[in-house]
Amino acid sequence: MSATRRASRRSAAAASSEKTAEKTSASAAGSIDSVMQETRWIKPEKDGPKHGSIPTAAKLKSMRSKALKNPEAFWEERASELEWFSPWTKVLDWKYPRAKWFTGGKLNVAHNCIDRHLTTWRRNKAAIVWEGEPGDVRTLTYQQLHREVCRCANGLKKLGVKRGDVVAIYMGMIPEAAIAMLACARIGATHNVVFGGFSADALRERIIDSNAVCVITQDAAWRRGSHVMLKEAVDAAVKGLKHVANVLVVRRVGVDITMKKGRDHWWDETLDGMNDSCAAAKLPAEHPLFILYTSGSTGKPKGILHTTGGYLTQATYTSNIVFDLQEDDLYFCTADVGWITGHSYIVYGPLSNGASIFMYEGAPNHPGPDRFWSMIARHRISIFYTAPTAIRAFMKWGDQHPAGHDLSSLRILGTVGEPINPEAWMWYYKHIGGERCPIVDTWWQTETGSIMISPVPNVTPMKPGTATTPLPGIDADVVRRDGTRCKADEGGYLVVKHPWPSMLRNVFGDFQRYKKTYWSEYPPAGDRPAYYFTGDGARRDADGYIWIMGRVDDVVNVSGHRLGTAEIESALVSHARVAEAAVVARPDEIKGNALVAYVTLRGASAKMSGRALEKLAAELRAHVAAEIGHIAKPDDIRFSEALPKTRSGKIMRRLLRELAAGGSISGDTSTLEDFSVLESLREDED
Ligand code: WTA
Fold first, then answer.
1. Is residue 66 part of a domain?
2. Does the CB atom of residue 374 touch ligand 1 within 6 A?
3. How far is the CA of 271 from the centre of ligand 1 (A)?
4. Does residue 13 belong to any structural domain of this protein?
5. Cβ(466) to ligand 1 under 6 A?
6. φ, ψ dihedrals at 399, nearest 5°
7. What is the count of structural domains for the chain?
8. Nearest 5°: phi and psi at 200?
9. Is the pTM of this model over 0.90?
10. Are strands 190-193 and 288-294 parallel, antiparallel or unpaired?
């Protein structure tokens, strides 16, 4: 890898005046002002590592243009890389806003993720290498995984679970979580994995909404040396729910729990004596594979519904092209199975490719802040996929932790979940990747099911902070409110112009909400097809790279400029003292909105107070003005020890917005990780 054209951010004043000029013509059509200018390139070496499975730049270009011309032929080719029991008769059946892919075809996800590898040498290859938080290690070969999945599938059948039933899975990161998912897939039950960090109330809501008939859980999970009492939460969640007939409980920690007679069953006792084989159900391509709840900006969580054939086609293809999975790789995705990343890029995509996945049970800083680096060194992990929020935490914990371990086995790094600020990207590149590993910044959503925008490692030249370009097969673009295409560097809305196989099919039980949220911003209009609305603001630069500017509801309008708060946050985080920042708007009589920045500080700076903090606030405002322009300068800077986050690590800007506006918190807070953060922010406000 070589870094060229080092940091040449344009002068803020120049950027700002150009933008103002541009805005006059563009804003009537509804664009967003984009002010971040990051122009570093990190280019793959000409003779850098290449694998047969990864296309060259020329091949990538031709794949992309062929796919744009004929998406159905492109996806048909991808689908034929899976094993089907019977072929499809139609590739895409699209009746706005309802999509069906590969209709007529029959397949089974578990068969594709396991059975098809058993006829090859892979049967004795590690499918899952797992490390528990206390340090215990388990390895399951594909053959062993097959046995466990079949036994679990037979166990579920014995409990009366049938094809089409919904099974809730509320577990920590243990192999049985993946086994349970695959067992559901095997018999055609639809799983609803609920993140093990959610409260009993949140779990109950998701069990009720999905009408689950069975819950799979464990006695307790390890987290930072203590126990998360999962079974207790399930007891509270299912209380009085007639539709939940059975609860299957894995013994993980060995704590005392209550087992309700007739309803609760130990996993080991139920599976004991179960047959080692269980025929994989031959399921229609559109059979519901899973429901996964995700929070909208308001209201109750949405049950995102994914189906079988299209989902697996794209999860398989993207795992291969984005992570370049090779037979000798050990691939570690740090997500939890409770999130879409855990579904597509721990379980289904990598296993369908016959890869060896590494799974870790516990906290990244237990027993010390170097846990991940120690595991990478000990297991010789070669691909590492994590989130910007984790990377910023690693930065805060200190460079000495990764430096103390041999990370030379790594060859590809990945990031997902939110825009990665260029400073964090460079840190990741240098301190984890040794300036040797490409970083795949992957943009996608629970709703898209699979990665949509990402570099191809060792092929796509990278720029820190952008997910680069849509993958072949994906027609994503940046448009204005009126649907017209934005010019280069003009901020707008990220849309997808053509259906893709792993797209969500519905919001479970609420088709109107599905239609309204995703397909009503850009309905079909004349010659223009409907565009899928991502809810993200973005800009396409002159090289065609897409820069995510954050959620549209994180877009603020200040003095007539609509600004993506992620860009301002990125500028703040590029200051040496800042660990993390969240920028929100509060109403302002003169400017429409004023910008409020919530900031946490790095290392020793966190102890600053009084005059020193006031000075720092002024310095930070000047820093943002210098980095971006005066229009983006926060009006208030509020220092905080921590920021309110969802359990998946996303900053809950909605709460900060409500705080900044001086109001009370309303709406759904079930995804908030730590309430005390909110309390202390409230006190600061008084
Ligand atoms: C954001 C996670 C910038 C985006 C897979 C999207 C990103 C939302 C990126 C979906 C990225 C995800 N760069 N922003 N590489 N990846 N996002 O449903 O706002 O948890 O709409 O899916 O995360 O979050 P979700």
1. no
2. no
3. 38
4. no
5. no
6. -65, -25
7. 2
8. -60, -40
9. no
10. parallel
